Each structure stands twice: as C-alpha cells, then as structure tokens.
Amino acid sequence: MMAPVWSRPEAERAGTELLVMLHGYGSSEEKLLPLFGVLPPNVTGVALRGHFDVGGSFGWFLLDPLLAPDVSEVLDSAARVFAWLDPVLAAGDFRGVSLLGFSQGMALATTLLRLRPHGFRAAVGLSGFVLKHELLALSDEPDAAVPFFWGRDVRDGFIHPGAVQYTAAWLQAHTLLTARTYPGMGHRIGRDELRDVGIFLARYLAR
Length: 207
Description:
Residues 12-202 form the Phospholipase/carboxylesterase/thioesterase domain. By secondary structure, the protein is α/β, with parallel strands linked by helices. Helix content is 31%, strand content 22%. It has helices at residues 71-90, 104-115, 134-137, 161-174, 191-204; strands at residues 5-6, 17-22, 43-48, 52-54, 57-59, 96-102, 123-126, 146-152, 175-181.
C-alpha cells in the first residue's frame, strides 16, 4: 500500500533526482506534502504510505516504546519499499534516488540505506532514529559516506535518549553528516528545518 503522491506530473519527471519520502507512525503520506515546496527544481518528491494499519492512520512497523521493534517487520517494510522502487528506477527516468524519513520513517530510511549503502545519493532524517540491531549492523559499510541531514529538537520527548545516542554515533561513523537542532520545534517539521532541508538537497543533488 504505497499510495504514492508525487510532487510533479509524470511528464515532467524525466532527468530529475528522485526523493523517496517516508512518514512517521500513526500518520500518512499527506503529512509530508509541505516538503514539496522546498524541493530544488531538479528534484522530484514522492511520498509513500506505510502498509501497517494504525487505527485509520499508517506506519511501517509496530511501534516499540524503547524504539527496538521486531526487525523482521522492519525488513518486511524495507522489502516492500524496494519492490515499489526498483521498477520505478528501472524505467530509467531518474538521474538518481535519495531518501527522506520523519520519525519512524527515518528508521526505515536508514535501514534502506544500510541495506543498499551505495544505492542512494543522499538522505534526510527528521526527528527520528537509527535502529540498533546486530543483523542490520552486519551490512554497515564505513566507507559509504552518503551525505545525510539530521534535524531534530534536543527536547523531543518522543525519541528515547538511548536511541538518540545510538543514532548520533551511527550517523557520525557511517555518513557524511550535517546535523542541526531546532529548539522549541518539538516532534514535528519546523519552518527553519524545511528551509535547511531545501538547502541541503540543493547542495548535494545539484546537476
């Protein structure tokens, strides 16, 4: 159930960069549509819907209070995204593909990045986390160094402190990290953060 929403019509996508956008738990693809407004002209955004039913909203896997979900559910969601994405890329319309995830969507985005460390040009993680799991760690490649933007509010109470600590360490070790904090933003996407995401994408996805 990807239910993709695109930032531009199909006839205008050829030759652009693709940005795959993943929402948070108990949300939907519609929550990410404001990000379309900050995409550089050469970037096409597509917001996907998670398959996991959350009482009328959606997620990617069952939410665990300590942010340590069943890894099989995470890998299942990753496989579903790849199954949607691979034919899109095979059509040859896009120059490259990048990732963006909010909250639980950041956990999935970084999992996709770990499974295909050389498959993405850049990634953005907003108010989210990286999953700590031995199986996922086996695929980590220190030399991948994908440009990564990590934005958050340091007082965001939705993300467990242990998860924040692991996320910071993993991103520093495995990506070319740009980290920004936004006091008072809370667990959402703020205006200043939107601006900085646009700047980051323009820098790393320039023609």
